[in-house]
Amino acid sequence: MNLIDVHAHLDHARFKEDLDKVIERARKAGVKLIITSGVNSRTNRLILDIAGRYPDIVRVSFGIYPLDALAKEIESNEADGFVRDIEEFNLDKELEWIEKNKDKCIAIGECGLDYKWVTGKEKEQKEIFQKVIETARKINKPLIVHSRKAEADALELIEKSGIKNVIMHCFNGRKHLIKKACELGFYFSIPPIITKLQHFQNLVSIVPINQLLTETDSPYLSHLAGERNEPANVSVTIKEIAKIKKISEQEAGDIIYNNARRLFSF
Question: What's the pTM?
Answer without folding.
Answer: 0.94
